[in-house]
Task: structure prediction
Amino acid sequence: MSLPILYSFRRCPYAMRARLAWAASGLQCELREVVLRDKPQALRDASPKATVPVLVLPTGQIIDESIDVMYWALGQSDPEGLLQPEHEATIRDLVRANDGPFKKALDRYKYPQRHEAEFGERSAESYAQAQRELAMQHIADLEARLQSHTYLLGERISLADLALAPFVRQFAHTNDEWFAAQHIPAVQRWLAAFVASPRLERVMSKYEQWQEGQEPVIFPPV
Ligand SMILES: N[C@@H](CCC(=O)N[C@@H](CS)C(=O)NCC(=O)O)C(=O)O
Result:
């Protein structure tokens, strides 16, 4: 029986969230590691927008938004109760804030040179700092949530934690020293637990670039 195929890129936070949910579901898939500057034709054929992750189901159905991959996998099997359907509206709001204004500011903070047209009179450095301040508005919202409980929605980990943590990790890693010096103890505690988790380690194995016709790589690794 053929397995679902997941096109992924190890360091992409969208692909990471999909792999986190996939691993949590207990399902298996064939993982195809993509190099973004050398995307395989099979990925483009499956999804012309050719972003990762993309899930191709044995039925031919294509799911090419990371959040939909998470919902699909956990909709099949959710042994940890990550979906928490009673909180779905809040989860969707958190994901919208993350993938929208936070991600936009994160990209500009991390790679200011790619947005030179937006600098105006500012230097690259002051532009990046302004973007970092914008991103911190979202971090402050997360801090308020995490001050009152262990995870974003309460005392149990949920899809929201897995969907947002890879992006907060990327934000922190942009300047670890600066991030560590901020007064956001609850976010720092939550992120440190995520970074140290066997859950993250399990989805961060390194794979060679996928080549058409190669032996399938089964994910997650056993
Ligand atoms: N909204 C998409 C965004 C996915 C996305 O933008 N992924 C990046 C990698 S982190 C990508 O594939 N970019 C295409 C490229 O760089 O060519 C999702 O949630 O799946």
